Amino acid sequence: MFSKKESKAEIQFENFDTLIGKNTSFDGVLKAEGKIRIDGVFTGQIEIKGDLLIGESSKISGDISVTNCIVSGEVKGNINAVNLVRITSEGKLDGDVTVKSFIIDEDAFFEGQCKMTNNEKNSSTKEISNVKSNIKSKQE
Fold first, then answer.
1. Sequence-ordered list of residues with C-beta below 8 angstroms from that of 136, at least 6 positions apart, any chain
2. Where in this protein does the record put region Disordered (predicted)?
């Protein structure tokens, strides 16, 4: 019934330019380029020209601006991504999302609003308002 587009969900995260480990906490503004992985506690604003992987042990409180983002930990804040946001089955996102492609895995948690954008010139923008979903409850 639904076809899966593998190419959009496949972001390569073997090598990282920056790693914030699980025994690390950070308060402030993070500005970076490249591939970033956060496994620790982060409070503040994140601005990345590149990809962000939020690990299972991470807890982030603040807004995120990024090219692509995979959420496997906990995020309380808004995500503005150019291409892709994916919430894995372990991920929790409490905040709004603005993105071109949005993937929510089974058992993931998302509560917020989602604004879908199309990056092509003169394109229309679709808005999905008041999206409140808890994917876990859909299986009941």
1. 107, 109
2. 120-140
Distance in angstroms (rounded) separating the CA atoms of residues 30 and 32: 6
Q: How far apart are the first and last CA of the chain?
A: 21
In this predicted structure, the answer to whether residue 131 has a pLDDT above a threshold of 60 is no
Whole-model pTM: value is 0.78
Spans of all domains in the chain? 16-135
When mean pLDDT is compared across 31-35, 50-54, 133-137, the lowest value belongs to 133-137
How far is Cα 11 from Cα 24, in angstroms, rounded to an integer?
25
What is the H or E stretch that residue 10 is in? none
With contact defined as beta carbons under 8 Å apart, do 132 and 113 qualify?
no
Residue indicated by tokens 């190419």: 7
Q: Which residue in 136, 63, 50 sits closest to 98, CA to CA?
A: 63
57 CA to centre of own chain: 15
Q: Give the residue among 57, 89, 90, 95 at the shortest CA–CA distance from 75.
A: 95
